[in-house]
């Protein structure tokens, strides 16, 4: 059990607003694999052993005496980012930007890929009976899509281009459709991933070949839609894809950068500037769990097809290797020995 988390999420000495969770389903994220393989992501450097995992759901095993909204046995989804202080970002509702935030599986904070885990009760959300544990775990990546679409201003009738059909590109597609996008084009190198995108509601599929020019791809997007998209959501972090995103977006539109790549990128900034194309960043998410739960419970969004592989916790290395090799879409680890169901 990752007891270290207990001290990390306390508001004050003797705080009783914590819950002990018996973990059930934990998805593997690309960032988990990156820490496993490289020991760092940007400025976040691993300096001591760290528990991985931040896409998670579980069952309440114990509650602190001040916890009022949860009880033992409740099934919950876990929001992995917990503000440590009431700073300006917390006060304005953008707590994801707080420099001191606790975040599961980001050094030095432990994650929740374990049997039992302690977390702030305020960031545990009860799941409706018709939402599975696996769907609960997938709320984390879905939240990235919701936050990206909010930042982009996706609304009824928006036309959207999504660069990259990996797990994050696919949840951006799902969120965009649920939030009113009329047509979505999605691009990727992988035919398999594009077929999944089609199953999830993409209107147009753009197969990218290595060496394709950014302006050429932008033209293909325009030809598919019959017009340039209002919004482009870039989910790869690849320099050429960022270039394509800017060229593809209509004047006065918005490019949202979700994917993380090299620290520096050469992009057609003047092209964006003279056409008033806004370029907006995305860092994780905030205030998304209630909306995501409502989307899943109502049936407006279906994330179930995203889970292509399942492993018991004992086979974690095999599960991580499956993700590293890019097999399937989402790999799910099952942490409860007595309940391996979705």
From TrEMBL:
Broad class of the protein's primary localization: other
Gene Ontology molecular function: L-iditol 2-dehydrogenase (NAD+) activity; zinc ion binding
Pfam families, per database record: ADH_N, ADH_zinc_N
GO biological process: one example: sorbitol catabolic process
Lipid biosynthesis found in the keyword field: no
Cellular location(s): Cell projection, Cilium, Flagellum
Superkingdom: Eukaryota
SUPFAM superfamilies in alphabetical order: GroES-like (SSF50129), NAD(P)-binding Rossmann-fold domains (SSF51735)
Descriptive protein name: Sorbitol dehydrogenase
Ranges of residues in domain Enoyl reductase (ER): 2-333
Assigned GO CC terms: motile cilium
Necessary cofactors: Zn(2+)
Membership in a protein family: Belongs to the zinc-containing alcohol dehydrogenase family.
Entry keyword set: Cell projection, Cilium, Flagellum, Metal-binding, NAD, Oxidoreductase, Zinc
